[in-house]
Amino acid sequence: MSRRSEKNILEDSVKAQVGKAIGRIPAGVFILTAHHEDRRLGMLASWVQQVSFDPPMISVAVAKGRPIMPLISESRQFGLCQLPQGEKIITRKFAAGIDPNEDPFLGFEMIHDTATHSPILAHVMSYIECEVTCHVDVEGDHDLFVGTIRGGKFLQGEPWVHLREDGFKY
Question: Domain segments of the chain: what residues?
Fold first, then answer.
């Protein structure tokens, strides 16, 4: 039986229960940022996880085809701005589809002179800047970027933790 067929059998028999279980895996709410040459982009991200103490590393999953992927791949850097509980203005901006030709950071106060010069929003709970260590195509609908932390700072607030009703939907 092919791998694809096995997946379909699993989906048909247990999808609803598995979806509820996966959806209850807690996730933070972040703005993933990247820049390359004169372009800056950001997107809402929640699949972020620490993967190493020494050196300190984190991973972030990004849906295939997202406009930010080439910027991360070409610059070999990304930033993560962790949103505080209940943050609405930044969330609204980055949850909506952003024109890849638009600079989504215009109108927001930014933090400058950071380790990687990644776009970092000022009104967030914390931020982390990373150098890409590994880019993995996991043969699913998302790719995984693993980054070594080069800078960051806790600013204020409590983390926004997100739970989903269905682990097969955002």
Answer: 26-162
Q: Taking the complete model, does pTM exceed 0.85, yes or no?
A: yes
Could you give the count of Cα atoms lying within 13 Å of 90 in the half-sphere of its Cβ?
27
Q: How far apart are CA 122 and CA 140, in angstroms?
A: 33
CB atoms within 10 A of CB 156: 9
Contact 121, 91 (CB under 8 A): no
The pLDDT tens digits for 45-99 are 999 999 999 999 999 999 999 999 999 999 999 999 999 999 999 999 998 778 8
Which tokens hold the place of 150? 């080069």
Let me know if domain 26-162 sits in CATH 3.40.830.10.
Answer: no
